[in-house]
Amino acid sequence: MPERGTQVALPGLARLLVRGLGYFTWPLRIDDYLELITPLWSVEERRGRIERVHRETDDAVTVFITPGFRWVGHQPGQYVRIGFDVEGKRYWRAYSLSSDAARPDGQVTITVKRTDDGVVSRFLNSSQAAGSIVTLGDVEGEFTLPSPTPQKLLFLTAGSGVTPVMAMLRALSRQGDFPDVLHIHSARAESEAIFAADLAALAERNDRYRVRQLVTGEAGRLKPDALDDVCPDWRERQTFACGPGAMLDGLREHFASAGIADRLHMESFEHMLLAEVTGKGGSITFSGSGITAECDGSTAILDAGENAGATLPYGCRMGICHTCTGTLSDGSVRDLRTGDVTRAGTEIRTCVNSPDGDVTIEL
Fold first, then answer.
1. Which one in 16, 83, 101, 184 has a CA-CA gap of 20 to 30 Å to 25?
2. Where does the record place the 2Fe-2S ferredoxin-type domain (predicted)?
């Protein structure tokens, strides 16, 4: 069964045709025959092939992927869920797309920074990734430029947070009608600045794009109250920010105190769990394995289950990729990001929900 969100959406007549062909190919699947032609063809899921890997820094690479059948495209700034098979196990991750949506070769790119404990990021930063077949999930996210494009923009990025903004900049460059853009990008060291050469080249080609690259290991992080110095007209600009949670929290508070919270647009792939949100806690029964775990009201069901010895599906661990989803068959849970309560009969993400009393989950 393909992963949720990866299934190929077929028209009604095509679905009937596929179902009929399945009787003739049984016990093999239709995909078993299609894969003899190309592994990118599938009637069950969307796939892609990693064509090449380009090194950006010592610990970051851009991965070029050719999408297969019925790729739906993306808007610059969005992210995609991707399934990677590493050492016989599938891992799901959500990555911002760093490419324009209209590359002539039809490829899409993601840019990935290696982390010591990241199975997928280490794989992509190795020499083994090129040629791999991946599974493409849904394209999601609202961190996109509005239409028409604002005439004055401020981009604030840090670390790998530059990736969705790079997609926006590439799209603006292709369209040719570049607005007034100031971009402040932070990296711990000059050698760690992803896309440094690309951003500098873009500024050389377009006098309406200005980039300032900060080395935080020397000068410290950009503080929100320094915006008056680096961008005196920041209140007049639509601001798009992507980076660590602490950076975004500071910007959110700063823009709110200035009365222009609606001018700030943010993206983060860090846990955004609220400290003041807790459930009642309770006993969790995983009906698939029969394992029971005790959980307090501030711990995610996924964490509690793993601590009790349950082997549970997971991907992003941030409530994005849906890999950890299971059906709540009894009880209720509380979303640790929003405080919303979900009751039995609904699918829930175990990485961002905590029990609100005793619960049973079909996992």
1. 83
2. 282-363
The 3-state DSSP class for residue 262 equals helix
CB 239 within 8 A of CB 264: yes
Tallying the residues shown for the chain, one arrives at 363
Determine how many CB atoms are found less than 10 A away from the CB of residue 189. 12
- Token readout for 51 is 């064509």
Q: What is the pTM of this model?
A: 0.78
How many angstroms separate the first and last alpha carbons of the chain? 15
Tokens standing for 35?
């894969």
Classify residue 73 as left (phi > 0), alpha (psi -120 to 50) or beta.
Answer: left
pLDDT tens readout for residues 52-84: 999 999 999 999 999 987 788 999 999 998 989
Q: Which two tokens stand for residue 42?
A: 């599938």
**DSSP reduced 3-state for 283:** strand
Q: Which of 244, 267, 290 is the last residue of a domain?
A: 267
Q: Look-up: residue for tokens 């068959």?
A: 329
Q: How far is CA 70 from CA 39, 46, 103, 210, in A?
A: 14, 7, 16, 37
Residue 1 lies in a domain: no
Residue with tokens 């790079």: 166
| pLDDT band per the 50, 70, 90 thresholds, residue 1 | very low
The HSE-up count of residue 15 (CA atoms within 13 Å, CB side) is 6
| SS3 assignment, position 167 | helix
Q: Decide: helix, strand or coil at residue 205.
A: helix
| 132 and 32 assigned to the same domain | yes
Domain hosting 125: range is 12-140
